[in-house]
Amino acid sequence: QVQLVESGGGLVQAGGSLRLSCAASRSSVRINAMGWYRQASGGQRELVAGITRDGSTNYADSMKGRFTISRDNAKNTVYLQMNSLKPEDTAVYYCAAGWTIATMTSYWGQGTQVTVSS
Hints:
With 118 residues, this protein is mainly β. Helices cover 0% and strands 51% of the residues. A hairpin with a 6-residue loop joins strand 4 (33-39) and strand 5. It is globular.
């Protein structure tokens, strides 16, 4: 079984930046895509961004231009650089992995809280 471990969440003021990291415990042929979802309190889980092994990316529209996803295949690690954070970005961010970005639900991390104060 592959485990995903997130780090890097925390409290930041609006306009600030945070960098999330997610490391997979091992490589797997079932993992081509890695990325992030988020879930705000009382809301539904939504895709933030995903990246495939060859570097193809997909972002939710509201994150384009502010968030950047990257990946180190040798370290089985994905990163999410979040800039110009807004209070509405406050959520639990979950690392996810799977075969494609659209089906990136085979493996989940436990989540890391990101809180953006106004």
